[in-house]
Amino acid sequence: MTADELKSVIQAGLVCEHLELEGDGRHWYATIVSIEFEGKRAIQRHQRVYATLGAKIQTDEVHALSMKTLTPAEWAVQDPRL
């Protein structure tokens, strides 16, 4: 799976104000900013992202996804060097 394909899958299931992906086709790191994360703990945010991937995680099409999940307010005050 390419970064563009993975972005499309995530964006199809989750409203994203910002989405960055880095990876090698199997192991990915994502920074995801979504209003849907408001009021949710980190584990709930990650579960929401994994729900967008559905079978792609279960079938190992996406082997590993590490992520930083932020609300728009959290993103606005984040140090850009992080």
**Helix and strand element order:** HEEHHEH
Mean pLDDT: 91
First CA to last CA: what distance?
26 Å
Q: How would you describe the shape?
A: globular
| Highest-level CATH class | Alpha Beta
**Strand content bin:** 15-25%
* Strand ordering within the main sheet: 1-2-3
CATH architecture tag: 2-Layer Sandwich
Main β-sheet description: 3 strands, mixed
Tally of strands: 3
Which helices and strands, and how do they pair?
Elements: H1 3-13, E1 18-23, E2 27-33, H2 42-53, H3 55-58, E3 64-70, H4 72-77
Parallel strand pairs: 2-3
Antiparallel strand pairs: 1-2
Helix pairs in contact: 1-2
Q: What do these coordinates show?
A:
The chain is an alpha+beta fold and 82 residues long. The protein has a single domain, classed as GMP Synthetase, Chain A, domain 3. It has 4 helices and 3 strands. A 3-stranded mixed sheet has the order 1-2-3. A hairpin with a 3-residue loop joins strand 1 and strand 2. Helix 1 packs across helix 2. The protein is globular, with a radius of gyration of 12 Å. The mean pLDDT is 91.
